[in-house]
Design goal:
Largest sheet: 7 strands, parallel
Number of helices: 18
Strand content: 25-35%
Structural class: alpha/beta
Strand order of the largest sheet: 9-12-8-15-17-18-28
């Protein structure tokens, strides 16, 4: 028996090792671009020659990255590494989506159309915004091209055909549509995991149509979501062109597909790239979005990325490369109130987008956390006992599963209504949803009152009441609790996020292939949907960047970014400091960055902090990266780090993040460029922190001409006796004259996170 047991064990071990070594994965391979032998006509031919099978090659990258992606087993990957021309190999990373009141809230009224004598509407006809997402629903009214001039001659892209997508669906508004799925298909076993999935640019998810129409959708009158938020729906840059690149599928967005799309978009001629997706933090040389964005920036393309939806957790911010605009989310001055009138006479305030038949005026019994399931409080699938909840209103704790799924679980168990109550994780943040049954969402404090009422009252009851759309809500904006927070774990000396924009309850175009909740059982169809997330705030900034590009075609991506950051505001519409929805406390730059964008002021910022490609290389040289790592990002045969910064914080960034570590004194020099009037004088104002003394020299900057550059030096001194803790403090440095305020937030920390 013993020998038989050994034989079986040996066989199992052998099979395990066989499977382990032969299982194929997608790898991204970085190659020394200049090593291509002259015998090969193209890099594609050279790369193919190094693979055992020509079909293993997925993409060849030429612009955003130097190398290729291929479907290999571990032995093949190891074999490639033996070549001196192969600099790095890593597994294909997986990213996830960060899922018409907005223009007025941002000040984009009809009077915004003229700047310095030029018509911005006409100027923005030449701006092309590329959106990497889940594709596009081209039939959306938001892509109407009425009265738009011919497509700019610089455009080199195309509209791809597919089984469900005719290239003729593109027009002078939606000028390009492509799809990239090779990485996804390989990860899915060579095919598509969903019947709804389509290897075409068509959006069957809705997310991509929402983000692209937010950035640059045409104005659509009488738009609403099932009667909510009625009015004119329009994007930020209504006259700009849209090009969509489908890189996200049912299981996520793969780095190999993202790189291929960025590569193509840059060559196609986009001016702005918008990516409402991201993953965890990684060194820049292993971050495909950071690598591709560097190439885009170098070619004058502005890149806007969502900060992520992992707030209010500290140090959760994604897409932190300094050449990328990292966008957090805030609320609008619009809300969708709903109420729960309790049997004890109290009225609880919440929000909802429920649009079906109401509940009437008869009170229904409330139930919470009853039954044998340990997860009935969360209303997870299968957790509710229909015998207990039938005909009643169920209280569900927010968290774990999707908010709208909780309502579906209640409905399927026979419940007639739901109140979703926040826990400490979501605090007081309220996100309205289009539930499948009468339902409202309430904050943590209200939720605690509700849970206590249900537990303590012998006959708890409620009636749910829905009040539609309310405008001019105060205070607003408020930083969304879900918006990811700093500090920046990749480079603590760079403050992230950069800004916040509207990201809660945003109305925009939608796909006709799916219901507004995204649930399979949701048979409703709507031309517009209301969504929340940094996915929604990111395209707002992408569209605004397009407008600034139209107004100032000579500005670099860094100058546009600086204008949006230094003119951002930190006071809400009650003239009080911005608050945080997580706990209603005061917000800080680790949550809102430089503040909430103000496009009117960004058009004329006075001064900008510009950054050249060479300065970004000096920044990269200051990190603990090898030369090969830096070459991977900058795509040059070699780099010279002799002029590297002594500290990454020396980068000419529009904000400051001071990491003292073991030092008491940190000193940075910044350079500002006058983009305002000639003969301008600016004086500095310092808003200090309790534990830090700040001095600025000189305290006055005099510019004789437009385009003139001036430098100033800031010295930060940590006061004696400050304990080395994880605490953070904040301040600001503002250069101002009667016409302009150029504000830079400052974050202080004493320890690396």
């Amino acid at each position: 028996m013993a020998s038989s047991s050994i034989t079986i064990t040996t066989i199992i071990t052998f099979l395990f090792l066989l499977l382990h070594t032969t299982a194929k994965k997608t790898y991204i391979i970085r190659v020394k671009h200049s090593d291509k032998p002259e015998s090969f006509l193209t890099h594609h031919d050279w790369y193919t020659s190094q693979l055992q099978s020509q079909s293993s090659l997925l993409y060849t990258y030429t612009t955003s990255f130097h190398g290729f992606s291929a479907y290999l087993d571990s032995n093949e990957a190891d074999s490639l590494l033996s070549s001196n021309s192969i600099l790095d190999i890593f597994e294909d990373p997986l990213y996830t989506l960060h899922t018409t009141r907005t223009p007025e809230f941002l000040g984009l009224n009809s009077e915004f159309g003229v700047y310095s004598g030029q018509d911005l509407a006409s100027a923005s006809n030449g701006v092309i915004i590329g959106v990497l997402d889940t594709g596009v629903w081209p039939e959306s009214k938001s892509f109407d091209d009425t009265d738009m001039p011919e497509i700019p001659s610089k455009w080199k892209g195309e509209c791809e055909s597919g089984s469900d997508f005719d290239s003729k669906l593109c027009n002078k508004k939606l000028i390009g549509a492509r799809s990239f799925s090779k990485g996804f298909q390989m990860a899915s076993g060579g095919g598509f995991s969903s019947k709804r999935e389509s290897v075409s640019p068509r959006d069957v998810d809705g997310h991509g149509t929402h983000t692209s129409t937010t950035a640059a959708g045409s104005a659509v009158r009488n738009a609403s979501f099932l009667g909510y938020a009625a009015g004119t729906a329009r994007g930020m840059a209504t006259h700009a062109r849209v090009a969509t690149y489908k890189v996200c599928w049912s299981s996520g967005c793969f780095g190999s597909d993202i790189l291929a799309a960025m590569d193509r978009a840059i060559l196609d001629g986009v001016d702005v790239l918008s990516l409402s997706l991201g993953g965890g933090s990684a060194p820049y040389y292993r971050d495909t979005i950071a690598i591709g964005s560097f190439s885009a920036m170098e070619r004058g393309v502005f890149v806007s990325c969502s900060a992520g939806n992992s707030g209010p957790t500290r140090a959760s911010v994604a897409n932190v490369a300094p050449w990328v605009m990292t966008v957090g989310a805030g609320t609008l001055d619009r809300d969708f109130p709903a109420f729960a009138n309790l049997g004890n006479g109290k009225r609880l305030t919440g929000v909802s987008l429920y649009s079906g038949v109401g509940m009437g005026t008869k009170p229904l019994e409330l139930v919470y956390n009853k039954g044998n399931s340990s997860s009935s409080n969360l209303c997870l699938p299968g957790s509710l006992d229909s015998g207990i909840v039938r005909g009643k209103i169920v209280v569900c704790d927010r968290g774990v599963n999707a908010r709208v799924e909780k309502g579906a679980v209640v409905r399927d168990a026979g419940g007639l209504g739901m109140i979703m109550a926040n826990t400490a994780a979501s605090g007081e943040e309220l996100v309205a949803d289009s539930h499948l049954l009468p339902a409202i969402a309430v904050g943590k404090k209200t939720g605690d009152l509700l849970r206590e009422y249900v537990k303590s009252d012998s006959n708890p009851t409620a009636v749910l009441v829905f009040k539609g759309t309310v405008l001019d809500v105060k205070p607003s904006p408020v930083v969304a609790a879900f918006s990811s927070r700093g500090p920046n774990t990749v480079t603590p000396e760079i403050l992230k996020p950069d800004v916040i924009g509207p990201g809660v309850n945003i109305l925009a175009g939608w796909s006709d292939a799916i219901g507004p909740t995204g649930l399979e059982k949701d048979s409703r169809r709507t031309q517009f949907n209301i969504m929340s997330g940094t996915s929604m705030s990111c395209p707002h900034i992408s569209g605004l960047a397009g407008l600034l590009k139209a107004a100032h075609p000579e500005w670099s991506p860094s100058a546009i970014k600086s204008a949006l950051m230094t003119t951002a505001y930190v006071l809400d519409n009650t003239n009080a400091p911005l608050h945080d929805a997580a706990d209603n406390s005061l917000s800080n730059p680790h949550a809102h960055g430089s503040g909430h964008v103000d496009p009117q002021k960004a058009l004329s910022p006075g001064l900008v902090y510009d950054i050249s490609t060479e300065e970004y290389i000096r920044f990269l040289c200051s990190l603990d990266y090898t030369v090969d790592h830096i070459v991977a990002i900058v795509k040059r045969p070699s780099v010279n780090c002799s002029k590297k910064f002594s500290d990454p914080g020396q980068l000419n960034y529009p904000s400051f993040s001071v990491l003292f570590g073991g030092k008491r004194v940190v000193r940075y020099t910044r350079e500002v460029t006058n983009v305002g009037a000639a003969s301008s004088v600016y004086k500095v104002t310092v808003n200090g922190a309790p534990s830090v003394a700040i001095s600025v020299k000189p305290s006055k900057l005099v510019f004789r001409s437009v385009g003139e550059k001036k430098r100033y030096t800031v010295t930060f001194v940590s006061k004696k006796g400050v304990s080395m803790t994880n605490k953070a403090e904040f301040g600001s440095i503002t250069w101002s004259n009667p016409q302009h305020e150029v504000r830079s937030p400052v974050a202080f920390s004493w320890n690396r996170f």
